[in-house]
Amino acid sequence: MAIAVVVLDHHQDLCILRQHLVKLSTPLAGLQSVGPGETPFDQVEVLNPQLRQQRLQKAMAFWLVPFGFFAGVTFTVMTNLDTFAFAGLWGNRLIGGLLGLVAGFLGSFAASSGVDSSNEDRLRQLRNRSEEGSWLLVVESRAGQDMPWKDLQRVRPQAVVAL
Which stretches of the chain score pLDDT less than 50? Predict the structure, then answer.
């Protein structure tokens, strides 16, 4: 899947290009307009690595938290440790499970922090252009589909940035 961001001067150019791209014979995976009256820059996941990191952290927590709990209980049972003897046999296992749960939750943060930031300079340039009043059109092609580069140049944009 290829992603390109088209930077435009006028809202009218954005509307014309968006309508043209919607009518293509091979449909695109996604079109998202960014600018005043459209989607704000910070709410577009492709343009905001923090949103991607939050989504990944939630997905990782969904799997790591329960796994951490069961791993903590299993470890406590297998090693037969009495670390929390005051809590009794089942309390000791439960505390071990809760500690594993916390470890899984912290692990989801560590795993999600590895979001690719290779496009930081390009994203900073796009943010600056957006703050200057330019309109952005985020174009996503389907897997195995070529980006319609000629069609993107149709309204003579300021720039076309590949991400």
Answer: none
